[in-house]
């Protein structure tokens, strides 16, 4: 035990790669050593993710702040017309809105991970909900001749506000990566134990190697094409799915498009599943 304690004392935030290793320990201590190593694996992964998150957050905040400062310095470098000052102010307001959007999404994600986060699920008409979302994005879609189609009927049991926020993020993401003249389809599929809503586009698609990480914060499969986004939209969608005890998955093919599916469990899912098994 003393040798194990010495080994554990060597571990610090700067030396999370240190491991106890179970090989040299007596059989009765090996499970303890394995448990410590598993804990250290989780800690190392958490620290790595936190470091990456901090770096990404600094980058995301630095860009709009640099734009704000640059525009202000240029505007003050010499006298300008009222129209020129208006243009600078409008651009600054846009950067402030971007900053506000990043902060709002980060706050939502932080609150969603809080242990006491409560949601208020209710039954509502899923078709009406997705049609409302489609109508909201209709003007933006029409400007690029993109059709937004709704399919399926049925009730969904979820927090209606969070449901709308999640699906809206998926549609917004689909619009960003769908070419002019494309199609986005919002579909409802009501099963025995789950209610699924999917957003499918025929845009550029996502490479297979990127799919496992698209729900990570600040991750962009294509940084050049995703410059307008924050890299938080899909992370927010996953967080909403987790809050409901549901799931989210993505399937994609480069050059053909992407489909992201959200699944919400029904409140009587357990009873329904048992009834199906008994029958």
Would you write up a description of this structure?
With 279 residues, the protein is of the alpha+beta class. It folds into two domains: 1-117; 122-272, Histidine kinase-like ATPase, C-terminal domain (Heat Shock Protein 90, 2-Layer Sandwich), CATH 3.30.565. It contains eight helices and seven strands, in the order H-H-H-E-H-H-E-E-H-E-E-H-E-E-H. It has helices spanning 2-9, 30-76, 82-112, 126-136, 138-143, 160-177, 233-243, 269-278; strands at residues 122-125, 147-151, 155-158, 183-190, 194-201, 247-253, 257-265. The protein has a five-stranded mixed sheet with strand order 2-4-5-7-6. Strands 1-3 form a two-stranded antiparallel sheet. Helix 2 packs antiparallel against helix 3 (82-112) and helix 6 (160-177) packs antiparallel against helix 7. The longest helix is centred in the N-terminal third of the chain and has 47 residues, at 30-76. The termini are far apart.
Q: What distinguishing features does this structure have?
A:
two-stranded antiparallel ribbon, alpha+beta, disordered C terminus, Heat Shock Protein 90, 2 domains, five-stranded mixed β-sheet, 16% strand, 279 residues, globular
List the helices and strands and how they pair.
Layout: H1 2-9, H2 30-76, H3 82-112, E1 122-125, H4 126-136, H5 138-143, E2 147-151, E3 155-158, H6 160-177, E4 183-190, E5 194-201, H7 233-243, E6 247-253, E7 257-265, H8 269-278
Parallel strand pairs: 2-4
Antiparallel strand pairs: 1-3, 4-5, 5-7, 6-7
Short characterization:
It is built from 8 helices and 7 strands.
Number of domains: 2
CATH superfamily of the largest domain: Histidine kinase-like ATPase, C-terminal domain
Return residue spans where pLDDT drops below 50 for at least 5 consecutive residues.
270-279
Largest sheet: 5 strands, mixed
Q: From the coordinates shown, what is the CATH architecture of the largest domain?
A: 2-Layer Sandwich
Mean of residue pLDDT? 81
CATH C-level name of the largest domain: Alpha Beta
| Structural class estimated from helices and strands | alpha+beta
* Helix fraction by DSSP (H/I, runs of at least 4): 40-55%
Distance N to C terminus: 56 Å
CATH third-level topology of the largest domain: Heat Shock Protein 90
How many individual β-strands? 7
Order of helices and strands: HHHEHHEEHEEHEEH
**How much strand content do the residues show?**
15-25%
Q: Numbering strands along the chain, what is their spatial order in the largest sheet?
A: 2-4-5-7-6
Rg from Cα = 24 Å
Number of helices: 8
Morphology: globular
